[in-house]
């Protein structure tokens, strides 16, 4: 299958030439026409078509490598579509050409205000952030958290707790930021990915018929629903965090406080489910009813453990 890619520079040069032609009948105060922003539906269709081609390219690469002796070793690098995406990027956006999806929908990556294509460094940075940004950042936070919890470091206990709290929050916030940005794209139609927003790469509509506006309104509604979903996830994460903190406090109270049955003696005996009471109370309770007084889990009397270090 023969594939041709149209260069960005050629497309923008033709459009700029058309836009800079002066019409003798135009008034002096009129300004030249500006590039139009591509809408959400066109950008999504473009990326979907590119994804279809990337999957086909991945299958072709797998078929080619199947003939090599070390196929299984090489196939580990093709489990994901990262290699196919990189190859596709090099021959399209990396070389300043339209992708198949962009050519199909009549859009082009551009710095619309400056009326030029994005620089090569901006295109590479946007690609790196889009393909590897979230994954690399989460992996880095995970490695940092392992180092913090390593017994060989010289951090104080208070510092370890604080760093663990910060790192855990960041690990939960990053996917939410990606989801919130996606909802903003659905609503506004600007900057498909967070990487493109950071590098100021947008999409311009250069030829072809625009999409029906009803589609854009449907995507805006999807964006509002996605934004509501993000807020709900934030609320759920916060509620879960509070419940965990209350559970930790309750456990600490059970260990170091009074028996929850008689409220007088010190808790010295643990059940298999983790609740702690004084020995006389829990042993008498289990003789009458072999269940934990708190969670109602089945607890045979011979399974309770006396904690000698309390």
TrEMBL record:
Q: Give the chief site where it resides.
A: membrane
Which InterPro entries does the UniProt record give?
Answer: PEX2/10 (IPR025654), Pex_N (IPR006845), Znf_RING (IPR001841), Znf_RING/FYVE/PHD (IPR013083), Znf_RING_CS (IPR017907)
What is this enzyme's EC?
2.3.2.27
Swiss-Prot/TrEMBL catalytic activity:
S-ubiquitinyl-[E2 ubiquitin-conjugating enzyme]-L-cysteine + [acceptor protein]-L-lysine = [E2 ubiquitin-conjugating enzyme]-L-cysteine + N(6)-ubiquitinyl-[acceptor protein]-L-lysine
Annotated RING-type domain ranges read 259-296
Keyword terms, alphabetized: Membrane, Metal-binding, Peroxisome, Peroxisome biogenesis, Protein transport, Transferase, Transmembrane, Transmembrane helix, Transport, Ubl conjugation pathway, Zinc, Zinc-finger
Q: In which pathway does it act?
A: Protein modification; protein ubiquitination
Q: Does the keyword Flavoprotein apply?
A: no
* Family annotation (Gene3D superfamilies): Zinc/RING finger domain, C3HC4 (zinc finger)
Q: How does it sit in the membrane?
A: Multi-pass membrane protein
Please indicate which superkingdom the organism of origin belongs to.
Answer: Eukaryota
Establish whether keyword Transport is in the entry: yes
- Subcellular localization, per the record? Peroxisome membrane
Against PANTHER family, the record matches this protein to: PEROXISOME ASSEMBLY PROTEIN 10, PEROXISOME BIOGENESIS FACTOR 10
**What family does the Swiss-Prot or TrEMBL record give for this protein?**
Belongs to the pex2/pex10/pex12 family.
* Name of the featured protein: RING-type E3 ubiquitin transferase
Organism encoding this protein: Polistes dominula (European paper wasp)
Q: Which gene encodes it?
A: LOC107063658
């Amino acid at each position: 299958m023969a594939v041709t890619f149209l260069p960005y520079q050629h497309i923008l040069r033709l459009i700029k030439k058309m836009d800079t032609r002066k019409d003798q009948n135009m008034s002096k105060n009129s300004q030249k026409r500006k590039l139009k922003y591509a809408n959400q539906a066109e950008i999504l269709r473009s990326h979907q078509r590119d994804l279809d081609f990337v999957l086909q390219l991945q299958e072709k690469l797998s078929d080619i490598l199947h003939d090599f002796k070390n196929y299984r070793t090489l196939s580990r690098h093709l489990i994901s579509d990262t290699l196919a995406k990189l190859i596709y990027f090099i021959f399209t956006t990396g070389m300043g050409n339209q992708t198949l999806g962009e050519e199909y929908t009549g859009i082009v990556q551009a710095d619309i205000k400056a009326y030029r294509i994005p620089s090569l460094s901006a295109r590479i940075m946007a690609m790196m952030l889009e393909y590897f940004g979230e994954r690399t950042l989460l992996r880095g936070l995970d490695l940092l958290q392992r180092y913090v919890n390593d017994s060989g470091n010289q951090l104080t206990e208070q510092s370890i707790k604080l760093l663990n709290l910060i790192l855990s929050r960041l690990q939960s916030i990053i996917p939410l930021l990606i989801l919130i940005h996606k909802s903003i794209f659905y609503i506004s139609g600007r900057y498909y990915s967070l990487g493109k927003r950071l590098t100021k790469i947008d999409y311009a509509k250069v030829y072809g018929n625009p999409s029906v506006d009803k589609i854009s309104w449907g995507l805006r509604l999807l964006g509002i629903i996605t934004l509501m979903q993000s807020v709900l996830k934030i609320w759920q994460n916060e509620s879960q965090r509070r419940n965990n903190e209350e559970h930790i406090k309750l456990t600490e109270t059970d260990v170091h406080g009074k028996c929850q049955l008689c409220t007088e003696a010190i808790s010295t005996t643990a059940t298999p489910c983790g609740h702690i009471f004084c020995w006389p109370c829990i042993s008498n309770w289990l003789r009458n009813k072999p269940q934990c007084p708190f969670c109602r889990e089945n607890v045979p009397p011979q399974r309770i453990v006396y904690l000698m270090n309390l």
